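Why do we bother with a discrete structure alphabet at all? Because it lets us treat a fold like text: something you can write down, compare, and reason about line by line. To make this less abstract, here is a complete entry for BTB/POZ domain-containing protein KCTD12. Read it the way you would read a sentence in a foreign language you are learning: slowly, and without expecting to understand everything at once.
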Amino acid sequence: PFPEIIELNVGGQVYITRHPTLVSVPGSLLWEMFTQKNVRSLARDSKGRFFVDRDGFLFRYILDYMRDQQLVLPDHFPERSRLQREAEYFMLPELVKMLAPKLSKQNSLGDDPCQSDPEELSPNADATRSLTSASAMLAGFITSGYRGSYTLGRDSQTDAKFRRVARIMVCGKTSLAKEVFGDTLNESRDPDRPPERYTSRYYLKFTFLEQAFDKLADAGFHMVACNSTGTCAFAHDQTDDRIWTSYTEYVFYR
């Protein structure tokens, strides 16, 4: 038999819920897992939690739906199509219907005998669609920063020895950070942060600033501010070489 309180590890995100919640939709994948299968046959992680290899960020909405069969999403939710795919995987047909895009009668294909041919659309149509898409995006700030250091001789800057960027940190709203950086975002230092909360503990899996800037630009962000601070210390008592340590931040807004 299954315990009343169940711990789940979904794609690295930990959830704790009641057994009746997981079996509240007969015929769903979770219902099958926790009613039709032997408890010993289910996959577990190293801490004994039941493991499901799916999107841990989106599973919170699956679990919310399982509680009362209602769908409540944040404003300007950017992951609707991905959540629909998760609903299909967990075999929740009613949730799939709720997430399906709805075409109004006026805009549905076949209802308007005078539809414009795609090649005859106004030249401003693409710009209009872009503006509409941009206006639907969630506004906010993302700050990326890194620490660096280099050794500099007293008499010549040509001998400066620079270290590469070791880690690019990301600060901002969780949902924005995940939207922009996706799978390249390392959440290991703050794995259970809700999407509406803020964090300063994420960092990127790559170390190229230009790559981070490209991703931010592709998501519609532009830089609005930057700053840098530095401290200095002597490298050795026997030399005049100095070690400079700096921290630089770039602030982006959409």
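What the structure line is telling us, in plain words: Residues 169 and 203 are 4 Å apart (CA to CA). Helices lie at 19-22, 29-36, 59-68, 80-89, 93-99, 125-136, 174-181, 209-218.
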